[in-house]
Every structure is written in structure tokens, then in C-alpha cells.
Write a structure and sequence with these properties.
mainly alpha
């Protein structure tokens, strides 16, 4: 095969739609494709991982504040931290619930497709 030069023609109309603005859209599209291909049949793996992270953080905050309250006599002005720890724990339960619902939906459609 011979090396032939490619002839490039300058743009005659409009402006290019490719640039830095497309990077965030492409990144979120990549995340969507990765999520759909990796966790399509096992959504609990995704939601339980994030839920475990939230639960661990919430428990660590609450245990740390409890120990600090009883043994170090920290101030009671740390109420927002108590609330954020509780919010993290509630969020972890919600994420686990969404994962379980996802597993039920996947199991339902897999069973439905076999019959």
C-alpha cells in the first residue's frame, strides 16, 4: 500500500461541537455505561458498597462524639455533627434498601424471562 497524503478542507460553515465542554458529558456517559455493564445483574454490590461507606462514617462519628462526651467532656455545641452521623446511618439504610429492591427487580425479570 502506498502512502497517500490526506487532503484536509477548512470548515466552511458553523463551529466545531467538539471541545472542553464535552468532557463532563462524556465522563457522565462513561459512568453510565460502566454502571449498566458492571452492575446490571447485581445492583446490591453497588448500593451496598456506598451504603457501607456511609454507615461506617456515621457510626464512627457517633461513637467518637459519644466517647468524647463521656470521657473528654467535649462541648454540646457539636449537635450538627451528631445529626450528620445520624443522617449518614439513615442514608446507609436507604441505600441498602434500594440495593435490595434492585436485586428483587433483577430476579423477577430473570425468572420471567426463563418461563
Amino acid at each position: 500500500m502506498q502512502n497517500q497524503k490526506v487532503k484536509h478542507h477548512p470548515r466552511q460553515f458553523g463551529v466545531s461541537k467538539y471541545g472542553l465542554k464535552r468532557i463532563p458529558k462524556g465522563f457522565f456517559d462513561l459512568l453510565t455505561v460502566l454502571f449498566l455493564t458492571k452492575y446490571k445483574k447485581r445492583p446490591m454490590h453497588f448500593f451496598a458498597g456506598i451504603g457501607s461507606l456511609f454507615g461506617f462514617c456515621g457510626i464512627a462519628v457517633i461513637v467518637g462524639l459519644t466517647i468524647g462526651h463521656f470521657f473528654i467532656n467535649i462541648e454540646r455545641s457539636l449537635m450538627p455533627f451528631w445529626l450528620s452521623g445520624g443522617l449518614c446511618i439513615v442514608t446507609s439504610f436507604m441505600l441498602f434498601s434500594v440495593g435490595l429492591l434492585g436485586e428483587l427487580i433483577v430476579a423477577f425479570f430473570n425468572q420471567r424471562g426463563k418461563s
